[in-house]
Amino acid sequence: MMSTGWLRTEVREFGNSGLKVSVLGYGAGQLGTSRLTEQEADKFLNAVLDVGVTLVDTARGYGQSEERIGKFLSHRRNEFVLSTKVGYDVEGYQDWTYDCIIAGVERALRLMRTDVIDIVHLHSCPVEILKNGEVVDALEEMVEQGKVRVAAYSGENEALDYAVSTGRFGSVQFSLNITDQRSIEKVIPTAKRKGIGIIAKRPIANAPWRFADKPVGDYAEEYWVRWKKMNLKFGIDPQELFLRFSAFTDGVGSCIVGTTNIDHLRKNIQAVGKGPLPADIVSAIRKTFKENDAGWVGLV
User: Fold this and answer.
1) N or C: which end of the chain has fewer CB within 10 A?
2) Selecting from 3.40.50.150, 3.20.20.100, 3.40.720.10, 3.50.50.60, what CATH number does the domain 7-291 have?
């Protein structure tokens, strides 16, 4: 097996939560696809933990992901920090209501075969619903009952700003990468000051360098436009460049990457294991983003 190198010893405090997370986390969105067999899911998930990843992040909307995590990792529950997202699509409940949050957490507990979920996010909850407060009340009720350790928010822009300002969340998750930097100055300083743990999603921006031409309709389309406009040339493999930038942005606890290929995961671990990018490269990346920023808000 390839050595996991520096990542295995690089574990970070996650805000003031008392949790500790690996620099590179696993985003389990792709795990939920029916194209992946049960045997493949079992083998891959256990390999994720075997190579030293200790944060597994999923969501209600990720197909079979929660169910497979429960089925194949519940026997190793003490080896990882479990994160999910709720707020919608619970049969018999209206989305984004108090009862839907309670039912969503209870459902996730059953599916993932655990007594407690470490981090539960309100998943892209609209700002007006956040301000109403009842969904946050429900999540806090789950924390009080010991079924959730950290109440969290996952989202972007105005709703994210509001969530951080309330002081009611111990964790936030948002897009952060070379082509999605607005949160670095707008969100992270406040989150750090309040002791809020930070999970950076889309650290590789859906790999826009894969496409020679604009991938119209692909999830990476907007990031491709930004990447081309920034036109960065450092002689570093793009995947490594993006990962090291995101993982070592000050304040980030963990950055999550989605895959179902263990070799890809190992390569990501190797990349992060090289540590932070040189300061002059980070400075150039930050400067280039600001020079080209044409209303480049966080992508949901």
Assistant:
1) N
2) 3.20.20.100
